[in-house]
Amino acid sequence: MNLAALAHRPESEDSFLYTDKTLHLRFHTARQDVAKVTVLYGDPYWRIPDASGADQLVYQCQAMTLLGTGQVLDHWGVTLEAPYRRLQYLFEVTGLDGTVWLYGDRGLRKNTTEERHEAENYFRMPYFQEIDRVKTPDWVKTTVWYQIFPERFANGDLSNDPVGTKPWRPTDHPGREDFYGGDLQGVLDHLDDLQALGINGLYFCPIFTASSNHKYDTIDYLNVDPAFGDKALLAKLIHAAHQRGMRVMLDAVFNHMGYGSLQWQDVLRNGKKSRFASWFHLYQTPLTPFHNPLKGEGQPQYDTFAFEEKMPKLNTANPEVQDYLLMVASYWIKTFDIDAWRLDVANEVDHHFWKRFYQTVTAIKPDFYVLGEVWHRSQAWLNGDEFSGTMNYPFTQQVEDHFFKRRRAAAEMVALLTDQLMLYRDQTNQVMLNMLDSHDTPRILTVAHGDEDLALQALAFTWMQTGSPCLYYGTEMGMSGGADPDNRKPMDWSNLGSPIWKRVAALVHFRRKYAATLGFGTTRLSVTDAGLIKVVRQGRETLTAYFNTTDRAVTVKGDAVFVQGFRNGQLAPKGFMVVVG
How far apart are CA 493 and CA 486, in angstroms? Predict the structure, then answer.
């Protein structure tokens, strides 16, 4: 047995309260090295005297389940309950070579009766503290999100179009400075279409006053951009969405401000004498012209997002800045009843601020959803006191690397996705935002080389996973587009109700129909001997899905409830099928 590979970390993603009464444990061993893992557990204060009168621990034994196999590790899991809301536990590990070891808090021990009763080597969950349990909003787990880039979704009010607004042409290749006149009235006009699609969550890119078309350079956090409408229209839109059972998530940029903001303009005028100087990271004056190191201009005079001169970075360690941003965050919840914040460039803001932020917003709405934009492993933000979940770009990459780019074999993708599920607690995995494209990436159909069957297969695979799925506007219309800004074309409304729209709608409604299992159930990924990717979701019912990413048809038995490319018992390449039961 590979003893060096044995791993468990208490009070982490390996040991956590899932409900107030259930403890989930995970244990990790070398891949295909261990025959079984048993957990020995009991109340730390429950002891009885043996024949000699010495106290002996009282413990129960429960076999752990193999959750899945990763790149180099097997992952095991078990759910335990404790009548007195406290537990101690020890792992008994049996190798394929027949050896048996005990793995505990103080290290490895021989499997003897004496060692089994060595209380000091047991891991502890000292008490099931409900206040410390990581809580994520249950409603997110049954939500299908739809991401709206307001400037390109629909132009419902021509009177607020910016000067130089271009005609609405979905075939255009937009420039970075182009405007097409999309607004909130356009969204309101099409809420029924989104409801018909099956959507029950609206995720808006920023709507606050800003000079750009994308609005990630906020000028005024407390007003709707005039090109989008006003606060009365926003309130009407949110109310109409809520009436249709749709939650609303707004996007905020608290990492940096726009160049035209009152605060930054004051700094430009007054330099370090500005009352807002401490709101930013200033190093030298004059502040203009900006020194861009990418152009060989030397050290920047102030910190920015990337090296964007017009996006000066906020000093979120400053209590004044914190109080201002928390006021902003609270205002839109209290006044407009939004359900979630998506937080841009979230990984570049300090943890101290995010902890204050989380306490503030959840004090207003306990089931509020806080979504951070983090493109890498996110454990540091996902311990229940900062974000509910993050945008799951690592998941996106694994799917694209196999389905579209063929850089990873099916077995490798399955292993990587299994490992990724082990990074976070179950309740956290269930609210990660799973998407295959967004305003920051090329569109799925373009990455799939224009192959609708392939794009729909990858989308269906994503919809079968743990996590809250998100559809980028226009995917249901078969829209294409390369990297930003080409992925932000005006919406092609001529394809409403088209064959591709119907296929995407069927997928959304499938996810909604089985939302309880897909939102809360367990996930097991594997590859069959015939090369099919197999996904088993167990919850209210058992859903078993097969995805054929090989170059040949494969025989599959079963009565499918949702299919693509399945006929006469044969699953074609780019096909999938889902069986219930």
Answer: 17
